[in-house]
Structure formats: structure tokens, C-alpha cells
Amino acid sequence: MAILPILEAPDPRLRVVSKPVETVDEALRTLIDDMFETMYDAPGIGLAAIQVGVPKRVLVIDLGDGEGATDETPVRNPRVFINPELFEPSEEQNLYNEGCLSVPDQYAEVERPAVIHARWLDRDGAKHEARLDGLLATCLQHEMDHLEGILFIDHLSRLKREMILKKLDKARKTRRAA
């Protein structure tokens, strides 16, 4: 397994629309393993393949909500979504303070459907369909935006988006100078 470099805004590769996965094979499972290692190292709770420069419709999520998890002691619960599709979003909305590994250390409230239905393949190519809510629904919608070349900051007003990008650029210059 390897820790992959995470692309940061405004890298134009983050705006690429990802292509469907044709075959679930060992090479794809290696990418998935590398994505988990990268996400855990960052640390984060979700990562789309395009964020590590691979324009495939693959994303990984781990909310630390595995069996026996508590707020004080998260337990890994890795989830893989290949070629995910969303349908029947609820009219009810949730507001979450979102962040992103491609927009490091920047957060903003984003409104998304509270409940969604999703279809996807797992790491073995098995089909799944489920009704999702709460943080998992929000996280899946956030990561699926990446597959369409959309960042969470695109859901904000132009002024808020520009402020975040300026802060990100300033932080990047400070890191380089150090």
C-alpha cells in the first residue's frame, strides 16, 4: 500500500468528470487500498479517486462508526463505492459544516438532502442499494460531487468561495516559505 499525493484546489484535475469503472480487478483493489491509506494518513473520512489524480468513479468513506464505536473511541468501518448513483433525494435538507482534503483546513456549512437512495458496487464488484441518511448521506454526496468535478466550495456564495481560496493560497505560500 502507498500514501498518494492529494490534489489541492485550484488544481484543474479536480474539475475533471470521472469515468465509470469497467472492471473490478486487482489493480482497482490496490487503488482502493492506497486511497484508504491516504485518507487515514491525512486524516479524513472520505476520498474520491480524482483527488489522487485518478479519474475513475471510485470513492472510499470511513466515518469511524464500526461496531462498538463511540464518540471517544472510533472503530474503522471502511466503505467502498464504485460507480455510485444517487436517486430519490429527500426534500428535507441537512446543514453540515463540511471540509475537504483537497481544500485543507477550510470549512463551511453546506446544505444537502437529508436522505438519499444510492446504488453502487463494492470492492468485489457486488451490487448494493440502500437508503442513507445522516453523515453517511452527506459524505457520499460530497464525495460524489468530486466525481462530477465539483468541490464543496462550489455550493457556497462567490464571496465565501473566493475568501476560502485566498486563505488556502495564503496557507500554501506560508508552508512553502517555512
UniProtKB/TrEMBL annotation:
Binding site for Fe cation: C100, H142, H146
Keyword Plastid in annotation: no
GO MF annotation list: peptide deformylase activity
Superkingdom: Bacteria
Cofactor entry: Fe(2+)
Substrates-to-products reaction catalysed: N-terminal N-formyl-L-methionyl-[peptide] + H2O = N-terminal L-methionyl-[peptide] + formate
Cofactor: binding comment: Binds 1 Fe(2+) ion.
Catalytic residues as annotated in Swiss-Prot or TrEMBL: E143
EC number: 3.5.1.88
Sorted UniProt keywords: Hydrolase, Iron, Metal-binding, Protein biosynthesis
Keyword Metal-binding: yes
Enzyme type, top EC level: hydrolase
Family label: Belongs to the polypeptide deformylase family.
NCBIfam families, A to Z: pept_deformyl, PRK00150.1-3
HAMAP family: Pep_deformylase
Function: Removes the formyl group from the N-terminal Met of newly synthesized proteins. Requires at least a dipeptide for an efficient rate of reaction. N-terminal L-methionine is a prerequisite for activity but the enzyme has broad specificity at other positions.
Name of the protein: Peptide deformylase
Organism: Sphingomonas quercus
Upper lineage: Bacteria, Pseudomonadati, Pseudomonadota, Alphaproteobacteria, Sphingomonadales
